[in-house]
Design goal:
Strand content: 15-25%
Largest sheet: 5 strands, mixed
Structural class: alpha/beta
Order of helices and strands: EHEHEHEEHEEHHEEHHEHH
Distance between the termini: 56 Å
Helix content: 40-55%
Length: 298
């Protein structure tokens, strides 16, 4: 393992017994040829996750929280505990295919100023998940309210946020890789700081990607690195609540973007757009959350 990069892998867990055994087993297999440490930050699981890790993986550094602090605070806890130069941030609802980490590191080495390197994600059924994104803006929300992404799914304009014009079949720079698995160097964190904990669950990864881009880094999608991802595995159990939190997180993100504009006049003129986007997000979230709530009783 001489001259190989040292890796700190951080897994965020919350009621993860459905996923944690496979997640940790595949992680250990893929990371074993590198100097490494594995840290799990558990957000007050009560389903046996903590006990499973203690009994079956005593070599893993386990951080247990008394309450569910949310994703961003848990990530920051994990980062602060890391000892090595490369930090691999992972959700619990994943299985890592062999060679993933090596491919991510190769992509990282090719870039002049690498930020976050994200893998190709496929479902547990092997189907490609197209999760790369451009940074969301208010006009993307307007397009979504009028159904334009559905009418023009491959349009760079009307479905530009979700990159409908990108087939995810090749490696390339992207503005936002999926937050389920992110590799970055400690120097990035030293430069721009930790995650913004005001985004407790959603949009923290989007905000972090934008901050890296503003600092001159390049985020990248690595097709050759593959992770199996159970979409929504950490949030589906509370779907109505998660819909509201995701939409309110998007509004908070829009508000942060607008507040960064240097001109007070531009901020004032664009304020109605921010209000309209908030109203649109509420109108969009209401039927979706109501549908998933009623499904519990039907």
């Amino acid at each position: 393992m001489d001259n190989k990069p040292s890796i700190s892998a951080v897994v965020i867990a919350y009621h993860g017994m459905q996923f944690i055994p496979d997640c940790l087993a595949t992680l250990k297999e893929d990371i074993k040829d590198f100097p490494h440490e594995i840290i799990v930050v558990d957000n007050a699981s009560t389903d046996g996750t903590v006990e499973f890790i203690q009994e079956n993986h005593p070599d893993i550094r386990l951080i247990t929280n008394d309450t569910n602090t949310g994703f961003a605070p848990a990530v920051n806890q994990g980062i602060k505990a890391c000892r090595f130069d490369y930090i691999w941030l992972l959700n619990q609802d994943i299985r890592i295919r062999p060679g993933c980490l090596a491919a991510l590191l190769q992509c990282h080495a090719r870039l002049d100023r690498p930020g976050i390197i994200g893998p190709r994600l496929v479902g547990f059924d092997g189907q490609l998940q197209k999760f790369c994104r451009r940074l969301p803006r208010i006009h993307h929300m307007v397009y979504k309210v009028f159904g334009l992404p559905l009418l023009f799914p491959k349009s760079r304009v009307f479905n530009g946020w979700k990159m409908g014009d990108f087939d995810h079949l090749s490696s390339r720079p992207v503005l936002q890789p999926m937050g389920a698995a992110m590799l970055l160097h400690r120097s990035c964190i030293d430069d721009i700081g930790l995650m913004d904990e005001s985004f407790v669950i959603f949009m923290n990864d989007v905000d972090y990607c934008e901050r890296l881009i503003e600092a001159g880094y390049t985020n990248y999608y690595c097709y050759d690195a593959v992770i199996e991802h159970y979409q929504g595995g950490s949030t589906k159990r509370h779907k109505p609540k998660m819909i509201w939190l995701s939409h309110m997180g998007l509004y908070a993100y829009f508000r942060k973007v607008e507040n960064k504009r240097p001109s007070k006049i531009i901020k004032f003129l664009r304020r109605p757009l921010l209000w309209v986007s908030g109203l649109a997000l509420v109108l969009y979230a209401t039927p979706r959350s109501l549908y998933h709530y009623l499904r519990k009783f039907i």
